[in-house]
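Batch job 17 of 40 flagged for manual review because the log was empty.
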Amino acid sequence: MSCLGCDLANAKLPVHTIYENELVHCFLDIDPFNEGHTLILPKRHVKELTELTNEETFAVMEAAKYISEKLNMCLTPDGITINQNGGKFSDLTHFHMHVIPRFENDGFTWSESLIEDDADQRLAETADKLRSV
């Protein structure tokens, strides 16, 4: 079975490479939110963040920092958003991270929580659940 992410990460398809090492490939998104929107993909096929080795995890974050530095130098954005969508919210069947230069009034939104309850109680319960595993 073919994986588009594997093909992109391993240069089997043309991309505009920004950075590459033995573990990850970073290239411009073909449908960018803003100029400079970069994708980071591990070269090994993995679907989820939790499947990355420690070495791959470090390589992804090191690349995110490096790309962010380049974006700050070249495009002088007002900020940078780093995002990763997993599970059914991922548009590829291959782990990838977005590094997006942000500009004031660029239209990027993150909705407020739709949960209307006692946040303190809910947060305490969630923290207990997470600490117990």
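Reviewer: the log was empty due to a logging misconfiguration, but the result itself is present. The chain is about 30% helix and 20% strand. Unflagging and moving on to job 18.
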